[in-house]
Amino acid sequence: MRLKNKTALITGGNSGIGLAAARLFVAEGARVAITGRNHKTLDAAAAELGHDVLAIQADVTDIEATDRTVAKLVAKFGKVDIVFANAGIPGATPVGHTSLATFEEIIRTNLTAVFFTIQAAAPHLNPGASIILNGSVHAVMGMPGYSAYAATKAGSILLPGQSA
Q1: Annotated catalytic residue: which of 4, 6, 146, 153?
Q2: DSSP secondary-structure letter at 93?
Q3: pLDDT: is 142 or 10 the higher one?
Q4: Fewer C-beta within 10 Å: the chain N or C terminus?
Q5: Which of 6, 72, 76, 149 is catalytic?
Q6: 2 lies in a domain?
Q7: What whole-number distance in Å separates Cα of residue 116 and Cα of residue 39?
């Protein structure tokens, strides 16, 4: 039980990599708050994960919702030991064929929201807390037709050094 008595926040913890991480964190003894936009998958994840899980419906692009999420987590479990800013979206953004709205949605979800998740949690972190960001090989390789996605993953590499 490597995470016994630890508290974690996992954005996008209702599916995919976030849900897999939540399963592992709970199995290792952590109290976990997960977020997700989809009420149905969030409820299913919470039911699967058990009683040491706080499921909060929130869109990471809504900064006030992120602040409320952290406040709910702290009220229920106390200070935070782990922040896994996992929520993200892919999306094709080929140069010459991408709308501003599509480009901005990917940037807002995968980079801006990560920064503001860290910022919301920072005052509530225990000494020695960990911040985990979900990266991608495309941060250094790029991916034809996915400019915004690759840029967000490259940008997230620099966030931890700039966040403290």
Answers
A1: 153
A2: B
A3: 10
A4: C
A5: 149
A6: no
A7: 22
Range of the domain at 127: 7-163
Query: Which residue in 154, 3, 8, 144 sits closest to 82, CA to CA?
Result: 8
Give the model's confidence band at 161: pLDDT under 50 very low, under 70 low, under 90 confident, else very high. Answer: low
| Residue 77 in domain | yes
d(CA 2, CA 86): 21
* 5 φ/ψ angles, rounded to the nearest 5 degrees: 70, 15
Q: Is residue 1 part of a domain?
A: no
The verdict on whether 146 is a catalytic residue reads no
Q: Do 93 and 145 meet the contact criterion of CB atoms below 8 Å apart?
A: yes
Residue 119 within any structural domain of the chain: yes
> Is 149 among the catalytic positions?
yes
**pLDDT confidence bin for 137, thresholds 50/70/90:** confident
> What CATH number is attached to the domain comprising 64?
3.40.50.720
Q: Are the CB atoms for 67 and 113 separated by under 8 Å? A: no
Please give the tally of structural domains in the chain. Answer: 1
